[in-house]
Amino acid sequence: MKTLIIYDSFFGNTEQVAKAISEAIGSASEVKVCKVGEVKREQLNGINLLIVGSPTRAFRPSPATNKFLKNIPANSLNGVKAASFDTRMSIEDIKVRILRFLVNMFGYAAKPISEKLRKKGAEIAVSPEGFLVNDTKGPLKEGELERAKEWAKKLK
Ligand SMILES: Cc1cc2nc3c(=O)[nH]c(=O)nc-3n(C[C@H](O)[C@H](O)[C@H](O)COP(=O)(O)O)c2cc1C
């Protein structure tokens, strides 16, 4: 199974999750991990599984992730399985009440990523998932890399 994992990352946390996911998908399949700004359109040709991960920034995917998703040609993901994940802060760690309210209202990056992938023709293989960081810049909370691997195994 030819798999492409595309991620964005400012502080390295989403990159770590992307790499953990690639390990979990395993050597039996052909897995490539690529930062979103470096991916070339041809890399989408012939893939069976596309996984896109982004840090949540202002309740959304990062600008580079949005740009990548927007530039995927219409219907070019027909027949491709896809999944998305994000990294995010835990709601309990957000001390400012208004921010908590906004987070509940506007959510995180993973779900809109999956929606956009579906609109380009992909079949969403597992529910979008979020992995938690401590503070604004991380590090990842304990156990999150293991949780990412378990999530990824559902895609095998
Ligand atoms: C400018 C900025 C905006 C952020 N917005 C959100 C947000 O809306 N929701 C959230 O849960 N975390 C938010 N965070 C925390 C990020 O999700 C966190 O930095 C990210 O998961 C780290 O991943 P990275 O190391 O791959 O960049 C924000 C962080 C920054 C710096």
Q: Ligands in the structure?
A: flavin mononucleotide
- Biggest sheet statistics: 6 strands, parallel
CATH topology: Rossmann fold
Query: How many DSSP helices?
Result: 5
Shape: globular
Q: Give the proportion of residues in helices.
A: 25-40%
CATH class: Alpha Beta
Using only CA atoms, what is the Rg? 15 Å
Key traits:
6-stranded parallel β-sheet; 6 strands; alpha/beta; Rossmann fold; binds flavin mononucleotide; 156 residues; 5 helices
Overview of the molecule:
The protein is α/β, with parallel strands linked by helices. The protein has one domain: 3-Layer(aba) Sandwich (Rossmann fold). Strands 1, 2, 3, 4, 5 and 6 form a 6-stranded parallel beta sheet that branches. The mean pLDDT is 95. It binds flavin mononucleotide. Flavin mononucleotide binds next to helix 1 and strand 4.
Task: Summarize the structure in short.
The chain is 33% helix and 22% strand. The protein is an alpha/beta fold and 156 residues long.
Describe the secondary-structure layout:
Elements: E1 2-7, H1 13-25, E2 30-35, E3 49-55, H2 63-71, E4 81-89, H3 97-106, H4 110-119, E5 123-124, E6 129-133, H5 144-153
Parallel strand pairs: 1-2, 1-3, 3-4, 4-5, 4-6
The structure holds flavin mononucleotide.
Residues 9-15, 55-59, 87-89, 103, 108, 133, 136-138 line the site of flavin mononucleotide.
